[in-house]
Design brief:
Layout lengths: L1 H6 L19 H23 L8 H28 L9 H4 L2 H30 L5 H6 L2 H17 L6 H19 L10 H27 L6 H34 L6 H5 L10 H33 L10 H20 L3
Helix pairs in contact: 2-3, 2-10, 5-8, 5-9, 5-10, 5-12, 7-9, 8-9, 8-12, 9-10, 10-12
């Protein structure tokens, strides 16, 4: 708070923002967005953590179907609200943004790249702990190459798009890097020793994600009007977390299926739950079987991530635009449009 206070700009340097009333907030759209996202993720997370096959049971199907219906309801509501009120309502998921093919493709691409990155943040430390026998702190530290590469990728994307709109090239390249990194990570063995190449493979994923994160932020800034800057950035952030949440749920589901398949008759679920607190209670054969199962589950995770990231490469093609003015021209155009819109709003009818 002290830093915010000391660095807060003077009034003349603050942007000229238009205040909106609480009555303009899209309460129903925001609620549908949150509820539908949570239900879809909950369904897969619940299935992954179950000790039995629940894919055909109501505990999986009910929240999944409800979540899908929620997404359908959200789209129908936002289309109706857009036709009924236009920009007089602060839509939670503005359809006017999605009509821009570059922004729409970026949103979907973000979902598919959030899936492998956040899954890897969850699955890699878990693998290091179980397969390589390292502590939780060291397992987390081993993500530093990916996180450092992510920061580097963001800087590179900023430089590339500083003056000219090169979002298509940025997102295509970032998707390729993530696909390459996930594919390489699927080749790691079940050796108890940490393979140095695994840390190098993390760099590809981190660099690609960093480029994607910066590129998507620029798309939200360049393709949305000033009035829609907040929802455009919020949607990008929301769908990235949504993709990552689905990725974590998918990883848990893959791990659950793998453990049930490979450890049947070797380790029971109650024993597996005590692995971290009582590792000495297991025989060497059991520990080797557990390491092998976790390693195979991680490799399957990365193969799935490689496929998902490969789809993101195809989706990035949707961000291609023939007419791409400079960044300064685009931002100046947004300012002119906003001034004209405010004049129309303030003018007597």
């Amino acid at each position: 708070m002290v830093l915010f206070y000391l660095t807060w700009p003077k009034a003349e340097y603050l942007p000229d923002l238009e205040r909106r009333t609480w009555r303009e907030l899209d309460y129903l759209g925001s609620a549908l967005l949150v509820v539908s996202s949570v239900l879809v993720v909950f369904a897969f997370q619940n299935a992954g953590g179950a000790s039995t096959d629940v894919w055909k049971q109501a505990r999986f199907l009910a929240p999944l179907i409800a979540g899908v219906l929620g997404w359908v309801g959200l789209i129908v509501w936002e289309i109706w609200a857009d036709r009924r009120w236009g920009d007089r309502i602060a839509a939670g998921f503005p359809m006017r943004l999605m009509r821009n093919h570059v922004y729409g493709a970026t949103v979907v691409n973000t979902i598919f790249l959030g899936f492998p990155f956040i899954m890897l943040v969850y699955a890699f430390p878990l693998r290091v702990q179980i397969v390589n026998g390292k502590g939780a702190l060291l397992a987390g530290v081993m993500l530093l190459p990916m996180l450092g590469a992510s920061a580097t990728g963001s800087v590179v994307a900023g430089v590339i798009n500083g003056k000219k709109d090169r979002v298509f090239e940025t997102l295509a390249a970032s998707s390729c890097f993530v696909t390459l990194g996930c594919g390489l990570l699927s080749t790691l063995s079940s050796s108890i020793n940490v393979e140095a190449k695994g840390l190098g493979f993390l760099v590809f994923v981190g660099f690609g994600f960093g480029m994607s994160a910066a590129g998507c932020t620029m798309v939200a800034n360049l393709k949305a009007s000033i009035r829609d800057h907040a929802p455009s950035q919020g949607i990008i952030a929301q769908v990235r977390i949504l993709g990552g949440s689905i990725g974590i749920a998918a990883s848990a589901a893959i791990l659950g299926v793998t453990l049930r398949t490979q450890l049947r008759g070797i380790v029971n679920p109650d024993q597996l739950a005590s692995l971290e607190s009582h590792p000495d209670d297991f025989s060497q054969i059991q520990l080797d079987s557990i390491r092998k199962a976790y390693s195979d589950a991680f490799s399957e995770d990365m193969r799935v991530c490689a496929v998902v990231a490969g789809v993101a490469i195809v989706l990035s093609l949707g961000t291609w635009s023939r007419n791409r003015p400079s960044v300064q021209e685009i931002l100046s155009g947004h300012v002119r449009e906003e001034k004209e819109r405010r004049k129309i709003v303030k003018s007597p009818t």
